[in-house]
């Protein structure tokens, strides 16, 4: 069942965070649905309520252009039928104004992100307000971003610029956005921190105090870049040097401070890379795409179930279902 992120955040606020996972292809989609229902190997395994979680499927502009945006919609609609127990939101990740309107008009997305964070505050507010007005008229919710993450956001090269709590309050009031992606020290990709840097919990705490009560915050760039996967990739011929991510044990403390949505994309790519490198190393005569694809779907499902455990969303699916009915 497709719901809005707002409906999910109402249940999660202050208790746990919802995993927001990017998809680009069939194998990621199947692994994602299985993992969020605690299934590993087969679509028709019974769901495990203790490990089942509500989740957010994220689609980036890059993903929409990878094959054709219509394939993604068709795949998700099919997944909804194959996994009727699932409760999830369909969200545009890092949209421009134009792409937001395309998603709003499609009638498929339940949530869009307008990312005008590279613009000065007033322009960011103006652009976000226009998107909010169009989205709300159709019952779609809007995530916006203030401050800039380190690393590369698609074609926007960001320099780290943490969100200013006083600007966050003004931004939310004037833009009318439903959730706010705040820059609190993370960055996109596999090289987030050098040395002992980490999340700026002090800034997050100030932001939570400054914004309206129970206002949902979002954390981008939250892959943990597990050493286990980086080592597997490097052992199988990869060259990922000094990769590092967010400590998974910081997800729940962030959730307690109002972070309701935690974005994870890079980790899924690392799982994909480890599985495929190992598969071709160990079976060099194989040229069938399905053996590694099968292993990947199972490993990705396991990985998602593990992540949801760290986010606190595992085991929450039935509570969310009940709340949605009442
Ligand atoms: O924030 C960016 C996401 O990880 C999406 O990445 O633009 O390469 O699909 P992508
Ligand atoms: P990662 O690169 O840490 O997975 O972040 C993904 C993200 O923020 C997508 O919007
Ligand atoms: Zn992001």
Descriptive notes:
By secondary structure, this protein is α/β, with parallel strands linked by helices. It has a single domain (5-325), classed as Aldolase class I (TIM Barrel, Alpha-Beta Barrel). Helix content is 46%, strand content 14%. The chain is built from 13 helices and 10 strands. The chain has helices at residues 5-12, 26-36, 61-66, 69-82, 97-106, 121-136, 165-175, 201-210, 227-235, 251-256, 266-282, 290-311, 317-325; strands spanning 18-22, 55-60, 88-95, 111-114, 141-146, 152-153, 156-157, 179-182, 217-219, 259-264. The strands form 2 sheets. It has an 8-stranded parallel barrel with strand order 1-2-3-4-5-8-9-10, surrounded by 8 helices. Strands 6-7 form a two-stranded antiparallel ribbon. α8 (201-210) links the parallel β8 (179-182) and β9 (217-219). α2 runs parallel beside α4 (69-82), α2 (26-36) packs across α12 (290-311) and α5 (97-106) packs parallel to α6 (121-136). 48% of the residues are buried. Residues 152-158 have low confidence and may be disordered. It binds glyceraldehyde-3-phosphate (G3H), 1,3-dihydroxyacetonephosphate and zinc ion (ZN). 1,3-dihydroxyacetonephosphate binds at residues 22, 93-94, 188-189, 220-223, 263-267.
Average of pLDDT: 95
CATH class: Alpha Beta
Anisotropy-based shape: globular
Structural class: alpha/beta
CATH topology: TIM Barrel
Q: From N to C, what is the helix and strand string?
A: HEHEHHEHEHEEEHEHEHHEHHH
Low-confidence stretches are 152-158
Q: Give the fraction of residues assigned to helices.
A: 40-55%
Count of β-strands: 10
Question: Main sheet: which strands, in order across?
Answer: 1-2-3-4-5-8-9-10
In this entry the ligands are:
glyceraldehyde-3-phosphate, 1,3-dihydroxyacetonephosphate, zinc ion
CATH superfamily: Aldolase class I
How many helices? The count is: 13
Strand content: 5-15%
Largest sheet: 8 strands, parallel, barrel
Q: How does CATH name the architecture?
A: Alpha-Beta Barrel
């Amino acid at each position: 069942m497709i719901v809005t992120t707002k409906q999910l955040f109402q249940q999660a606020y202050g208790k746990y965070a919802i995993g927001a996972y990017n998809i680009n292809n069939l194998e990621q989609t199947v692994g994602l649905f299985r993992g969020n229902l605690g299934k590993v190997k087969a679509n028709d395994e019974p769901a495990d309520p203790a490990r089942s979680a509500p989740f957010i499927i994220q689609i980036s502009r890059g993903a929409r252009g990878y094959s054709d945006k219509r394939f993604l919609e068709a795949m998700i609609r099919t997944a909804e039928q194959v996994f009727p127990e699932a409760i999830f939101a369909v969200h545009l990740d890092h949209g421009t104004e134009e792409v937001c309107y395309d998603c709003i008009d499609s009638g498929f997305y339940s949530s869009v992100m307008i990312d005008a964070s590279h613009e000065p505050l007033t322009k960011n507010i103006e652009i976000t307000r226009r998107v909010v007005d169009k989205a709300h008229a159709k019952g779609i919710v809007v995530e916006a971003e203030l401050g800039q993450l380190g690393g590369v956001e698609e074609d926007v090269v960001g320099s780290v610029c943490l969100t200013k709590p006083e600007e966050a309050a003004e931004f939310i009031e004037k833009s009318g956005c439903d959730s706010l992606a705040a820059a609190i020290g993370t960055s996109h990709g596999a090289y987030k921190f050098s040395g002992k840097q980490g999340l700026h919990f002090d800034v997050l705490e100030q932001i939570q105090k400054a914004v309206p009560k129970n206002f949902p915050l979002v954390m981008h760039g939250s892959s943990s870049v597990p050493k286990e996967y980086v080592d597997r990739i490097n052992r199988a011929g990869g060259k990922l040097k000094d990769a590092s991510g967010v400590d998974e044990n910081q997800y729940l403390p962030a959730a307690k401070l109002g972070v309701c949505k935690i974005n994870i994309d890079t980790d899924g790519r690392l799982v994909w890379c480890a599985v495929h490198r190992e598969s071709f190393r160990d079976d060099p005569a194989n040229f069938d795409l399905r053996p590694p694809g099968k292993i990947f779907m199972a490993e990705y499902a396991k990985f998602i179930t593990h992540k949801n455990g760290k986010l606190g969303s595992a085991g929450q699916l039935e509570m969310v279902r009940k709340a949605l009915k009442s």
